[in-house]
Write a sequence for this structure.
């Protein structure tokens, strides 16, 4: 009982520290996760935290990773993911294997590590964890396709890296490696994980579509996130991470299409909160767990590892772009985006979990652990803090003045209308006298008229904004139509077959709007004139 | 008096182009037609339903843009007709101009210094020249 209270106190303190950091980073320009690691390091160095922290691989993989992966998959726009699938899969599957071999080879050359052990390090450090970058990308308003490419790669390369790591670890410890069996293992574990996630995700999506109860739907997604991981890992011995990825994608993009807007809002809020909590605790614990003395003692191998990781990432990102271009004839990854993918390849939770799960009898295990912490700290503290400047330098955060002005005017118009509605209600309820109501109403009407005039002036100067707004409005209307279809299904007004058919039509139309929008930005589809 | 055709797509030059066409129709007391040609050929969707949805959504967008232009013309006292066509731009424009009573085509090109549209003004100039040569109508380019 006392142990439970101590753990609870520790968690409460950690969450409190994380919340204070979250408040503080609103004022300083530093990614949240990077700030958490720095605070963790500081607390650890000052010995403010008296409780022993033991970060076990089970704790990371079974407790923290499912909500993080599920939330990322849950938020990922399936249509945009599909549009970028070729470069994402190239980076996430062959990209991880090539990264593993390059890093392994370079680390083996530059340190005393045996090649087989260095390849284990290559595999565990191959998975990117761009939480800090994605967070920045969202805040700075970089192109959505770029954010999806970063997130998509990270989601799939986690699964690949874990499978490669398991095969490499066995080979390093036993000294035996059968390439054919290795490739077979890779496919069985990956495909098996995706199949488990696919089946469970589909089942939950069907249930979610038929149950319009916020609490049940919320509970179902929570069960799915943790359940798919546990079932895949412990029942079928296949990739739990890939199971969670597929389950999250399916439940959000198939299941949620049929749920009421209030349920969706509650679900997105819940997963935002769970991911925030998992991230906060994880990165704070990373900072607390770093043994600075051990890092200092392994400075040489760490420097080699950092160089190898940067080289491996550069080779894969720039090389795969050439490969995609050669195979399809199209530059799927714009040149500026490649620099962001390269420098934004931070390392985090998965690498840490894999390093901690290294077999105890693996030669030079402590060196590998120090190298992993060293690379993680470098990517978080150096790359994580400078990626914003790169994004700004490349002009990926710049938004034309007229677009910002239009957004602000629209926002002001919405708030003015909401304010007026509220005042009208206060007047109807007798809380405002007739004179007060007339005075306030006139003031609001004048403010709205000014805003509308300003919006019209912007549309006159930049008619393309009007066309974009029409596309957005149409997309909004189609989403509402899909919601109405879900309602009609639940009320028994539509058969499943009709629902599926009409729902598919709306999906096609939404996809068509995406294509039109992308094309308007890159070329011309209609005559100007 | 033949009609004036204003080809528009809602791009950067659309307001200027429409305005010019409305003024011209008033001056000449001519009929004004707002024309939008949408071309779904920029993508080859693998499934037919997506292709159908793409064509339909492009036409709907075109219709909405032309309706907005029509309302603005009416506010200035000019009655207009609208026409949305689907397919390759040049062929559709030429076909429409050949089979109607059009005397003048008004089209616009984005301003060179404003990089809000991927459209190259030189492409529009070439398009205008092609139409002049193949149909023989007056083409007014609004920059």
């Amino acid at each position: 009982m006392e142990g439970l209270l101590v753990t609870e106190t520790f968690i409460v303190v950690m969450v409190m520290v994380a919340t204070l950091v979250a408040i503080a980073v609103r004022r300083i320009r530093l990614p949240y996760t990077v700030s958490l690691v720095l605070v963790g390091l500081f607390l650890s160095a000052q010995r403010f935290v008296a409780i022993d922290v033991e970060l076990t691989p089970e704790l990371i993989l079974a407790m923290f990773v499912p909500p993080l992966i599920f939330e990322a998959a849950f938020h990922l726009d399936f249509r945009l993911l599909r549009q970028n699938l070729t470069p994402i899969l190239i980076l996430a599957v062959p990209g991880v294997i090539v990264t593993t071999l390059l890093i392994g080879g370079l680390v083996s050359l530059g340190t005393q590590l045996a090649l087989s052990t260095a390849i284990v390090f290559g595999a565990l450090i191959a998975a990117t964890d761009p939480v800090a970058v994605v967070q920045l990308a969202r805040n700075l308003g970089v192109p959505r396709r770029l954010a999806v490419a970063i997130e998509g790669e990270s989601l799939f390369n986690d699964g690949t890296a874990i499978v490669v790591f398991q095969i490499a670890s066995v080979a390093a410890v036993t000294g035996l490696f059968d390439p054919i069996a290795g490739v077979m293992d890779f496919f069985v574990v990956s495909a098996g994980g995706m199949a488990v996630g696919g089946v469970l995700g589909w089942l939950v999506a069907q249930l979610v579509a038929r149950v319009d109860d916020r609490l049940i739907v919320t509970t179902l997604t929570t069960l799915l996130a943790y359940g798919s991981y546990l079932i895949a890992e412990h029942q079928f011995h296949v990739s739990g991470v890939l199971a969670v990825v597929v389950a999250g994608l399916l439940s959000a993009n198939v299941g949620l299409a049929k749920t009421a807007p209030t349920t969706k809002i509650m679900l997105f809020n819940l997963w935002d909160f769970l991911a925030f909590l998992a991230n906060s605790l994880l990165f704070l614990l990373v900072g607390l767990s770093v043994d600075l003395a051990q890092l200092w003692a392994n400075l040489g191998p760490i420097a080699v590892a950092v160089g190898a990781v940067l080289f491996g990432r550069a080779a894969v990102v720039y090389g795969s772009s050439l490969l995609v271009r050669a195979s399809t004839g199209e530059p799927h990854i714009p040149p500026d985006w490649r620099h962001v993918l390269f420098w934004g390849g931070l390392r985090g939770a998965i690498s840490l979990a894999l390093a901690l799960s290294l077999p105890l009898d693996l030669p030079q295990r402590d060196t590998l652990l120090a190298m992993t912490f060293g690379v993680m700290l470098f990517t978080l503290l150096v790359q994580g803090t400078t990626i914003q400047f790169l994004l700004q330098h490349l002009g990926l955060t710049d938004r034309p003045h007229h677009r910002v002005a239009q957004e602000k005017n629209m926002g002001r118009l919405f708030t003015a209308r909401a304010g007026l509605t509220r005042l009208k209600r206060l007047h109807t309820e007798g809380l405002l006298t007739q004179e007060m109501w007339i005075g306030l109403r006139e003031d609001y009407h004048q403010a709205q008229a000014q805003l509308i005039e300003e919006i019209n002036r912007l549309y006159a100067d930049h008619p393309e904004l009007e066309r974009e707004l029409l596309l957005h409005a149409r997309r909004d209307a189609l989403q509402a139509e899909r919601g109405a279809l879900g309602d009609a299904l639940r009320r028994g007004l539509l058969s499943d077959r009709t629902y599926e058919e009409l729902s598919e039509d709306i999906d096609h139309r939404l996809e068509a709007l995406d294509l039109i929008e992308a094309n308007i930005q890159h070329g011309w589809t209609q005559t100007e004139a | 008096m033949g009609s004036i055709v204003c080809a528009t797509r809602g791009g950067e030059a659309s307001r200027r182009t429409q305005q010019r066409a409305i003024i011209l129709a008033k001056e000449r007391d001519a009929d004004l037609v707002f024309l939008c040609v949408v071309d779904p050929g920029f993508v080859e969707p693998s499934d037919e339903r997506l292709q159908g949805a793409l064509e339909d959504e492009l036409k709907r967008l075109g219709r909405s843009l032309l309706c907005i232009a029509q309302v603005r013309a009416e506010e200035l006292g000019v009655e207009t007709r609208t026409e949305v066509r689907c397919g390759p731009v040049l062929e559709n424009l030429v076909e429409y101009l050949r089979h109607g009573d059009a005397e003048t085509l008004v089209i616009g090109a984005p301003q060179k210094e404003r990089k809000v549209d991927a459209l190259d003004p030189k492409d529009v100039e070439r398009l205008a020249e092609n139409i002049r040569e193949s149909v023989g109508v007056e083409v007014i380019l609004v920059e």
Notes: Confidence is low (pLDDT under 50) at residues 113-118 of chain B.
